[in-house]
Amino acid sequence: MTQGEHRTPARRTVLGAAGAAAVLGASTALPTGTAHAAEARGDARGRGHGYRSLPVPTVIAHRGASGYRPEHTLGSYRHALDLGAHVIEQDLVPTRDGHLVCRHENDITGTTDVADHPEFASRKTTKSVDGTSYTGWFTEDFTLAELKTLRAKERIPGTRQENTLYDGRWTIPTFEEVLRWAEDEGRRRGREVWLHVETKHPTYFRSLGLGLEERLAKLLRRYGRHRANSPVFLQSFEPSSIQRLAKLVDSPGVVLLSAANSRPWDFVQAGDPRTVADLVTPAGLRWIASYARGIGPTLDLVIPKDATGRLGTPTTLVRDAHAEGLVLHPYTHRNENSFLPADFRRGTDPTAYGDSFGALKRYLETGIDGIFSDNPDTALLAADDFTAAARG
Ligand code: G3P
Ligand code: CA
Question: Is residue 4 part of a domain?
Fold first, then answer.
């Protein structure tokens, strides 16, 4: 057994639903007699058991094991599985010829060697994406065959120098390659490989004739991940993308929530005045629950920081989201001081690891259902600690 694998027990297996509610807090209890409960039981043909069967807290490997390997590579995804992560995340953007590839943004300047390819020098350009100007090279200006000549590299070499060891080792994966890889790994490891798939800039890409959702739904259907109990979450910062996907497939949707004062880009484009602050109210959460199964809030929406960057008092978001039957998968945990709350930093080196377990403990104690982490092994140990403490 690899580190963390199968060691964080499924909440309902170990404690039972009632026991879990009593020990972990009533807000985590599974709604009964609802579509959510049906998903939790899996279908009558025994295909999958749905997202409610995942271990809680669920550890989601953010862009793979991106704390240890260049993000969004098969090497990063494989390492995350080896570390025992319960779910592996992909961010999706399209190529010029309509293939979905795994990159955090369409600007591939910082995560590939594209700048070292003289044949692509003329493709460097400046464009506005969701209201922000970027200069670089963009996936929508490359065919898949062209993108496949590039190699992935570490995004933050100044912080994660050791990861540069792997620069150039892997290409940009297509989402279809990831689906095939997940099938193969699932067979090899004897368990489903869960994915958490984000549509990036969906309104922007639709305006270019490169709508993401239909392409994603087609692939999910081809690989049998379109059902309510399929081992996949679909996530987006644009609620309309999750609404569109909900009409195409039954896979559980998760609405990502950025800073409270921000507005989803599709709202900006549609003239919808609501901000994230409106979406985290009980009424906003009820609206989300009408088409999605969860939310992915920034950790600051769960525990805000004070003026000095230290963790403050938890909000009511966990309780309020659970009251609407929504799971919470906040983002993003990272071990380095520069990413930790001020009260969990250790020493003065921003690239050194801080008291990551201390910070995770605070976040997990709020009752969140899972967490995105660049360091899934750390998050798994913290989840083990949390589960052991909850059981007494
Ligand atoms: O999707 C969850 C988390 O990854 C959201 O942030 O910017 O890393 O995609 P980002
Ligand atoms: Ca993401």
Answer: no
Residue of 90, 102, 104, 242 best suited for mutating to test ligand 1, as the one with most atoms within 8 Å of CB: 104
pLDDT of residue 49: 84
- b vs e for 166-203, b when ≥16 Cβ sit within 10 Å of the residue's Cβ? beeebbbbbbeebbebbeebeeeeeebbbbbbbbbbbb
Task: Compute, in angstroms, the gap from residue 386 CA to the centroid of ligand 2.
Answer: 25
Q: Whole-model pTM?
A: 0.90
Indicate whether 386 belongs to any domain: yes
Total structural domains within the chain: 1
pLDDT reading at 349 higher than 50 = yes
| pLDDT of residue 31 exceeding 70 | no
Whether residue 134 is predicted with pLDDT greater than 90 in this model: the reply is: yes
In the DSSP assignment, the letter for residue 391 is: H
Ligand 1: which of 63, 66, 87, 91 to mutate, most ligand atoms within 8 Å of CB? Answer: 91
Q: What percent of the chain has pLDDT over 70?
A: 88
Which numbered atom of ligand 1 lies nearest the CA of 60?
2
Residue 298: burial class (beta carbons within 10 Å; 0-12, 13-18, 19+): middle
**Contact call for residues 320 and 285 (beta carbons, < 8 A):** yes
In a domain, 288, yes or no: yes
pLDDT value at residue 5: 30
Q: From the CA of 196, how far away is ligand 2's center (Å)?
A: 8
Q: What's the mean pLDDT in 201-223?
A: 98
Ligand nearest to the CA of 237: 1
Q: Looking at residue 25, which CATH number applies to its domain?
A: 3.20.20.190
Which range scores top for mean pLDDT: 12-16, 46-50, 157-161? 157-161
CB atoms within 10 A of CB 33: 7
Domain that includes residue 249, residue range: 11-391
